[in-house]
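Operator note (shift B, R.M.): manual run for S1/P1 nuclease requested after the automated queue skipped it. Running by hand, logging everything below so the morning shift can see what happened. Input copied straight from the record, untouched. If output looks odd, do not overwrite the archive copy; leave it for review.
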Amino acid sequence: WGRNGHRATGEIAQKHLTRKTKKEIKKLLKGASLALVSTYADEIKSDEAYRAYGPWHYVNFPFGGTYNPSEANPKGDIMVAITSCVEVLKSSLTTSEEKAFHLKLLVHFIGDLHQPLHIGIAEDKGANDFQVRWFDEGTNLHSVWDTKMIESYNMSYSELAANDSSFSKEEISEIKSGTVLDWMYESRELCENIYATTNKGDKLGYNYMYDYVPVVRQQLEKGGIRLAALLNDIFD
Ligand code: ADE
Ligand code: ZN
Ligand code: ZN
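Run finished. Output pasted below as returned.
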């Protein structure tokens, strides 16, 4: 996602944290909110020192296939990223600086896990090479999903987070259940559906928003709920 998507995920998660988790996170982040730190992983992207974290934002594997760690990118991927962050945060051997760094990354990567095109295919780099038109402008499908729909919908991250009550209590406990791998496959299914309904060169606009803004909002909310579940499990 772009900045607003990540911040919405962080803001929604904040509302699902237990008191104890909130307190522990506040200490680690020196008072900063999850929304504020959610974009940190993008801010360090251009820094040579953090090059190794580039492949951690996504995973690519063929449609109809499964995620196979032995065939995965040796430089890591979003599954490796999330597993590593959780491990550092659970460890009693890591410093609070290291924990703070990996907490900021975890907030970001749980967001990206819910952007369907981040569970993509290598051929077009998660639709970064899939050219489309967005209203009157040329762009790519990845960017439509990362930012264009959220921008055109014209909602700030706090508005996105404030209107997040689309799920019942029962649905929320269903959403929290399952593993990170299950959540990844849920995104993959959405990704396959997006490819089945979008063609190269398509002129996307209001009709596309009508079909897919609800999916974007649902994914942001699920990301927030699941991020909170992981954090509550780690800290409480
Ligand atoms: N670069 C290569 N594949 C990608 C993907 N699926 N998402 C984002 N960036 C990528
Ligand atoms: Zn992206
Ligand atoms: Zn990212």
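Quick read of the result: Strands lie at 59-60, 119-120, 131-134, 137-140, 203-204. The longest strand covers residues 131-134.
Leaving this for review. - R.M.
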